[in-house]
Specification:
Layout lengths: L1 H9 L6 E4 L7 H15 L8 E5 L7 H6 L8 E5 L5 H11 L7 E3 L10 H7 L8 E3 L7 H11 L9 E3 L11 H10 L5 E3 L7 H11 L7 E3 L11 H9 L4 E3 L4 E2 L1
Parallel strand pairs: 1-2, 2-3, 3-4, 4-5, 5-6, 6-7, 7-8, 8-9
Antiparallel strand pairs: 9-10
């Protein structure tokens, strides 16, 4: 609640991690402002604020919160699932992201990214050379957007990225097979790849499967809720034989 957050802001103790779930509709601005107070207070503490998680439209309107993140240099995890940012909010976040070079986990799941801001969001990621986990589920990702993000991912984060979630972008990722294959080829430390509910067919996944035959790191692959016909897909059989999966989730069943 906002009362707890304001108490944290007033406390001399360092706040390292904050997780804000959806407050009541009439409390959202109050909770947002209290969270901003915590962020501002953390700047003068001996131990920096390292992790912020906000889910399900908890901070609407979002602009002031996004602006408060600017210069929060010690932040390592920023999870903004289902925040449904409007364009002005996203632009404010892009500016703040430019100062968060220590991020190791970033999740923008559920935030629809307008086409004219894709390049700016992807460009902001260039600074995150330590990024391990990237979540872009349900952002309206199409093949062009994926290509733009892959340019950054396969250069700035190629050696560090271990988890990529681009699930729930149903019907938009047609003809993206070569882009997915490029990500798999360059991100050699990728251990988790979530492609659930993306409208993928065998045409999109076959180039990916060929690349994953050479993977030495991937242990968790989610292909559920797609329309993939595995009959006659030799690259899939070869991939499964070559890679030791901890979790392999398919459209019809989960293999553990």
């Amino acid at each position: 609640s906002d009362t707890v957050l304001r108490a944290l802001a007033a406390s001399p103790a360092s706040v390292v991690s904050i997780d804000v779930k959806t407050p009541r509709l009439d409390d959202r601005e109050t909770v947002r402002d209290a969270l901003i107070d915590v962020i501002r207070a953390s700047r003068g503490r001996s131990q920096p604020l390292e992790s912020i998680t906000v889910s399900s439209e908890g901070l609407v309107p979002f602009v002031r919160f996004a602006q408060a993140l600017d210069g929060l240099h010690g932040l390592q995890r920023l999870i903004l699932r289902g925040t449904y940012m409007h364009e002005d909010s996203l632009q404010a976040l892009i500016v703040s992201l430019g100062s968060l070079s220590q991020l190791v986990a970033l999740d923008l799941g559920g935030s629809q990214i307008p086409d004219d801001l894709v390049g700016q969001v992807a460009g902001a990621l260039v600074r995150f050379t330590r990024l391990r986990k990237l979540g872009l589920s349900c952002v309206g990702m199409d093949e062009q957007m994926l290509a733009t993000f892959s340019y950054t991912i396969t250069r700035a984060q190629a050696s560090s990225l271990t988890s990529l979630d681009i699930s729930q972008n149903y019907g938009h990722l047609l003809e993206c097979g070569e882009t997915l294959a490029r990500i798999a080829r360059n991100c050699t430390n990728l251990t988790q790849l979530n492609l659930s509910c993306c409208g993928l067919t065998e045409n999109e996944v076959e180039p990916l499967f060929r690349e994953l035959q050479n993977s030495t790191a991937l242990t968790d692959l989610d292909l559920s809720l797609n329309s993939i016909d595995f009959n006659g897909l030799h690259s899939f059989r070869q991939m499964v034989e070559a890679v030791s999966y901890t979790h392999l989730t398919l459209p019809t069943k989960r293999i553990v």
